[in-house]
Amino acid sequence: MSTQRSVSLIGAPTDIGAGARGASMGPEALRVANIGPTLQSHGVDVIDRGNLAGPANPWLPPLEGYRHLDEVVAWNQVVHEAVYAELQGGRMPILLGGDHCLGLGSISAVARHCREAGKKLRVLWLDAHADFNTSELTPSGNIHGMPVACLCGFGPKELIEIGGKVPAINPKWIRQIGIRSVDPGEKRFVHEQELEVFDMRYIDEMGMRHTMELALATLDANTHLHVSFDVDFLDPAIAPGVGTTIPGGPTYREAQLCMEMIADTGRLASLDVMELNPALDVRNQTALLAVDLIESLFGKSTLMRK
After folding, report:
1. Residue ranges of domains in the chain
2. Which of 83, 115, 252, 300 could be cross-linked to 109 through a Cys-Cys bond (beta carbons 3.0 to 4.6 Å apart)?
3. Residue 99 DSSP class
């Protein structure tokens, strides 16, 4: 069971960093899928803080390697302050995205909280993509492909400084799981920075259980566990409602095991749910699945265990 039983839902309705429109509707789709009441049914104290406000998506081409940089900065600053405020108040923030560029604001806030509280940080990045691009490496300029690089100090000054410390996190604190689409230059950069990546081939060969045992190894009572869950982590056959579908992701059972093993640690302290795009979904099934998996993070188990 999660040790932290008071949760704040924070909607961040923007697709400012994405290559397809529609992730801005993600927070509402998660609410329609009953994320609040579902968590309450597990004895969690849930407050829905509503949606944050930020600049509209101007839908312009990239400028000097970045699309919508000013707007991305504005949104991430708002997210940073909101997530940080919940942590300061002793509540667990669940950020309802929105596209994954917002992971920068969220995780930089978590890192700031951990620095001040003297805690270690472990970030699980559940995603089809490494999101470790820079303006030199990215073909598109879409900043949702850059948040991990920015958190590790590689990116435009305005973004990497949001958390008050550069870099916001050390690459060694991250475990990436489910990766199966990485640009060629990005691949080299991931290796250079020694990110720990459990890609789909690793999961195929070793299984999800072994993968998660390694990803969660050495967590202790002084570790804050942050999960950044990009819905495109899942196989598109079960989760079509994302802008960048990459076949060959975890199955329903693999994803459930992943979430249950995170829950078993009792260390989950903050969560992002990103890139849900209802415009591309089928009868909200991806949002319903996401809520089902989040429920497992809070102790719903498929087995009767003593």
Report:
1. 6-297
2. 83
3. -
SS3 content of the chain, % helix, strand, coil (to 5): 40, 20, 40
The distance between the two most distant Cα atoms of the chain, rounded to a whole number of Å, is: 57
Instruction: State the Cα–Cα distance between residues 26 and 273, nearest whole angstrom.
Output: 9
pTM, two decimal places:
0.97
> How many C-beta atoms lie closer than 10 Å to residue 107's C-beta?
31
Residue 2 has a pLDDT of 40
Report the alpha-carbon distance of residue 38 to residue 96 in Å, rounded.
15
Helices (H), 91-199: 103-117, 147-151, 157-160, 184-192
Which tokens sit at 132?
């470790």
Distance CA 153, CA 205 (A): 32
Helix (H) / strand (E) containing 172: none
Q: Are residues 266 and 232 in contact, defined by beta-carbon separation less than 8 angstroms?
A: no
Contact 242, 193 (CB under 8 A): no
Residue type, 235: D
Pairwise CA distance, residues 234 & 238, whole Å: 7
Task: Find where tokens 């040790």 sit.
Answer: 3
Q: Which CATH number fits domain 6-297: 3.90.550.10, 3.40.50.2300, 3.40.800.10, 3.40.50.720?
A: 3.40.800.10
The pLDDT assigned to 257 comes to: 97
Q: Which residues are catalytic?
A: 100, 127, 129, 131, 144, 230, 232, 275
Residue 113: per-residue pLDDT: 98
* Of the candidates 16, 226, 7, the residue with the CA atom closest to the CA atom of residue 100: 16
C-alpha distance from residue 82 to each of 24, 50, 127 (Å) = 17, 11, 23
Q: Mean pLDDT per 10-residue run, the chain (306 residues)?
A: 75 98 98 98 96 98 97 98 98 98 98 98 98 93 98 98 97 98 96 97 98 98 98 98 97 98 97 98 98 95 63
Q: DSSP character for 269?
A: E
Joined tokens for residue 209? 């259980």
